[in-house]
Amino acid sequence: MDYSKVLGLPVKDIYEREVGTLVGFEIDSRGMPSSFFIMMPNGSFLKVEGEAVEAGKDYVVLKNFWKIKAESLIRGMEVTKRRLEALEKLRQEHQIPTNVYDELKNTYVKDMNDLNNKIVELVSELSKVQEELKNRLDMLTRIRSINMVQLSTGEIDEISYKAAENMIESSLDITLLEIKETESILARLKNLKQKTSYETTHRSNFLELLKAINNNKQQNSDSPLVVRLQSVMQNHPQ
Q1: Which residues share a beta bridge with 11?
Q2: Coil vs helix vs strand at 10
Q3: How confident is the model over 156-203, as pLDDT tens digits?
Q4: 61-67: long-range contacts at Cβ-Cβ below 8 A with a sequence spacing of 24 or more?
């Protein structure tokens, strides 16, 4: 593929939201793109790994790079775990010299520790992302409430209210999907059962996150947001 043809194309995320414009890329020794550069609407730049970008006809899709990072770490953990298990079996069967066993085990254990550290870092990053998503939900809820009040007082008309409400509805649904995706990634990382100490530090419950949207933390489980969440989860199973 001629990657120069994607330069200048708009970039959208998986929810078809405009992200920016693809303005550059780097090629590795195999001739494959190792990274892409996206110019954001505010003039800043976003650098993403090559596998996070998928070329379309009229625009470029930016895939969920949190999920890509998680899958890469999970694959690495699974492969390293199998290597350690195979190494132990070969040792028990006396099919491998002791010095080679020690050398390989040290290498694999180091790989496992490095992967564990990266998982801890990713969980921390995802926790921050969740906080940002919660704040976005909070803001959407507040704006919706203000609009409802102003509609009731006649400060805004029905047409303006419905136009704003449609945008809020769309953003709300997408944000809920983003939270669900983040929760799914965290669950997969925790299922590795490696260095579980960080799990209690970064515990995240989806419904608890939504219930904490309001400052008074008194959101009921049958509130419109939670009802919408349940609908989203049913329509988009993991």
Answers
A1: 20, 60
A2: strand
A3: 999 999 999 999 999 999 999 999 988 888 888 877 754 433 333 333
A4: 61/11, 61/12, 61/13, 61/14, 62/11, 62/12, 62/13, 62/14, 62/19, 62/38, 63/14, 64/13, 64/14, 64/181, 66/122, 66/125, 66/126, 66/129, 66/181, 66/182, 66/185, 67/181, 67/185
| Domain final residue, candidates 63, 85, 107 | 63
What CA–CA distance (Å, rounded) separates 38 from 61?
Answer: 11
How far apart CA 38 and CA 41 sit, in angstroms, is 10
* Domain shared by 45 and 104, yes or no: no
From 13, 37, 63, the end of a domain falls on: 63
For the stretch 55-67, pLDDT in tens is 877 899 998 888 8
Question: Amino acid identity of 181?
Answer: E
Q: Whole domain around residue 51: which residue ranges? A: 3-63
DSSP state of 194: S
**Residue 229: per-residue pLDDT:** 55
Per the CB < 8 A criterion, the answer to whether 99 and 148 are in contact is: no
Q: At residue 29, what are phi and psi to the nearest 5 degrees?
A: -65, -15
CATH of the domain at 25: 2.30.30.240
